[in-house]
Fold:
Amino acid sequence: MSELIRKDASVLAGLVSSGEVSAVEVAQAHLDRIAVVDGDVHAFLHVDTEGALASAAAVDAKVKAGEKLSVLAGVPLGLKDILATNGLPTTCGSRVLDGWIPPYDATVVTKLREAGVVILGKTNMDEFAMGSSTEHSAFGPTHNPWDLERIPGGSGGGSSACVASFEAPLAIGTDTGGSIRQPAAVTGSVGVKPTYGGVSRYGIVALASSLDQAGPCARNVLDTALLHSVIAGHDPMDATSINAPVPDVIAAAKRADIKGMKVGIVKELGGEGYQAGVRTRFEESVALIESLGAEVVEVSCPSFPAALAAYYLILPSEASSNLAKFDGIRFGNRVGDDGTKSVEQVMSETRAAGFGSEVIRRIILGTYALSAGYYDAYYGQAQKVRTLIKQDFDAAFAKVDVLISPTAPTTAFKIGEKLDDPLAMYLNDVATIPVNMAGLPGMSLPIGLAPEDNLPVGLQIIAPAMADDRLYNVGAAIERELLAKWGGPILGMAPELAGA
Amino acid sequence: MAEATMNYDEAISKFDPVLGLEVHVELGTNTKMFCGCSTVFGAPPNTQVCPVCLGLPGALPTLNKIGVESAIRIGLALNCEIAEWCRFARKNYFYPDMPKNFQTSQYDEPIAFEGYLDVEIDTDEGRKTFRVPIERAHMEEDTGKNSHVGGATGRIHGADYSLVDYNRAGIPLIEIVTKPITGTGKYAPEVAKAYVAALRDILRGLGVSDVKMEQGSLRCDVNLSLRETPESKLGTRSETKNVNSLRSVERAVRYEVTRHAARLAAGDSVVQETRHWHEDTGISTSGRAKSDAEDYRYFPEPDLLPIAPSREWVEELRAALPENPAVRRARLVADWGLSEIDMNTVVNSGALDLIVEAVDAGVEPAAARKWWTGELSRIANDRGIELEELPVTPAHLKRLEELISAGSLNDKLARQALEGVIAGEGDIDAIVAARGLAVVSDDGPLLAAIDEALAADPAVAETIKSGKLAAAGSVVGAVMKATRGQADAARVRELLFEKLGVSE
Amino acid sequence: MSGISQEDVAHLANLARINIPTDELGHYAKQLDAILNAVAEVSSLDTANVVAMSHPVPMTNVFREDIPGVSLTAEQALSGAPAVEDERFRVPRILDEE
Structure:
């Protein structure tokens, strides 16, 4: 039954709905896999064995009763621990929420449950999604299945590592500046950040409200599309969610035809500062895209070099406000309440004890940027830069249908390598950040291994707002060619995880 | 410890007061401002909460349409401009009754701004109108409620710990802020009181809130500063909270004038601070000084989209506004030919709307007034109910007056008919028929009853003939009794005097 | 750009209600200073005629009808509370009056 863990989500769904394999068998196979490898990978913070098997059994009952099932019924999934799950712990990778059990489900979780998706558990992440390596989790880092001494990317390293290590065929991540796409790139998996507003944020613990978006992670484009279609859609509980039909991403993934398309390379993303092997694989992709009948041109987005700076003003500012609720009063761990201290003191001790240093750093930075006298120069100015970034994208999309760039400047670096240098860490997101700033959809697709270290490289595809389907069309077209070239998915080239 | 104060008249002679009033209105919407929790008063603690108003991680706000509509209507009633585009903003500070540790409010983009309210006060020169300039009205949310345990007074100071109920958190509030109110001179307290009273009337008329100051659905903060002359620049102001009645508004302003004056005259400066009003002792005391001036770090609320009320919607709402209460009262005083005192009686009895209703249906204003402020008020008071609860309609009063004019009912009989209406016996005609209520219009029975009454009291005839006409009252009374009130008392009196050969 | 001092960090930490140990203030100040220098780059762009982005989604007037929905029970509401008394959240004594 261990071959079950190697199968695509679409295949598993078919096996379950036809009754050929039970959902319980599928779930158990993945739970067994977790038991074997997660000691090394540490993708999961919490595994809900009982709940998963119960969900699977419920799907099997439906199959027996001949009821109509969703496209992903019975397929196992890992959920980034930033989504509220009723009855299941939700820590956001932070000590301040250790032990918190939400009394409600995020809308995405409700949709997954209704679709019969089997939630295996909650995956690891940088604390409150602040990071690019998952090293800032209060509960220890996740390890990249390609090389356990390396980072799996962040903040959603757990979700990408979970699919890359075959612990689940699907995962949900969230992406504020690249936290789905960059881990996908460094783990050789697929990750998509939908158009801002395309997926409900209700129940997703907020980092930067104007940038956050939940999205699908999987090992191939079609599976990603299936998951995207299940979680996307308007939600009356989220005022910022788009009230329009979800683009037909599944059809696009099946179409996989880019003949006659115009593809733009963003001059400012890629080039200097990017690892040689990353650039090599990227240039190969460009050639491949041209061979498929698309026209590739260069476009310039002059405001993009300022995107990182603007992002690291907007995110900390919004986060400093979003994280104010973690004070030990209504939920979470309260520290220092010995009966003598004031509430102000207890709040301060609770937060100092509960937050890690990266979180504290960003809260202080955000508090500063919003301070009286500094607002215009910092937060106010950064929001203007955002407008410039959007304008650059709009101008580019007037000329081309999609934009491409390398997803990340480097392959997976070693655990501990960049931990002492916050600025060096921030640079991991230099290519992904502009996409969040403009609220556009973006995908990372594996395009090979860097020759110098044999580690995965990702291609970023960017589409105009609400044109998420274009990502899947282009991604699937490229993927098909690469599968043919490699003789199979790239994750087949990953080292075997022996397990503890 | 009470602070020094200066005599009010002396203070006013030396200084010029400048007022600022901030009023918070709790809207009477069905649900909270940013979530669907019920707002019904008095529910058990923490039963009207949800992830949103409890500030749980991951929850998001959704905007109550009636909250927005009410804000616009209030702005229009206060002669404000309505923003074409505005947003909510986060006001960031930590406090246990604030679930998110920020309040979703409006900062530099209020939904209504630049308005005014005319109020009337009594001055030495008679009734004067004063225009209070309004800076803005904006939307925000209420906080939860803290109760303090331990400590003597149940207040914060000396408490051991506190308990928080979030039922109130998220209930819609509209904050109305005046510009500095200048030129009131010694009438500052009266202007302040009149403003809050007028505002309360308007809000009640709009139906957006039950505006009960004593219950907290209308809250007033009083700001006051003094300056040497009206040409001087503004002085340091103090803010006084816990002003829970109209009387307190007036007293708090007066007190702060006397307190500021004493300080300034002694060469001390006024401390810019928030103070707490004590209605029982008639003084304000200093709130705990804040160690750090609070920097609220306002920024636009990213979880809510901008509000851009179309001009069509605004005009629709404007057209449907009820008449400004003060304007309406002035109009009615003129229409009905009432005195100010009479109108005050009407307003105080709570009968104004009922009288207007009756007048609109064709009842004479004087008659409508007579019934509603007279007999019906008495009945309602006796029963401990509101006037509106009496099942008396304009149609009833109209019919009653018709019968009285025609002479078939007198006042006393009419009252009996109303009793019948209230007892649910049917309409006026049905009751009159069933109870046999009719003025005896035939002189015959009246004369017979007069004879009987005189026979029963032989001496009274002589008393009347000797000039003591008042004695006729006992005869009339006896006749009324004998006829079960159905005699026309005036006619009885006429017949009696005719019979005795006496003239009035 | 003016640097960020230890005192600044202490003041900000107070505003943010985080009790940063005194011996860590200097370390945070240094790191934040470096980050601020990097992000100060935003002011080099000419934004004189640029309107700040309000929301990535260009929508307005998203309203909810004033109809009651589902609330939590008190038990659910209090389920995560560190301290409960009388169906309310129990908190240590409050110094500042609001």
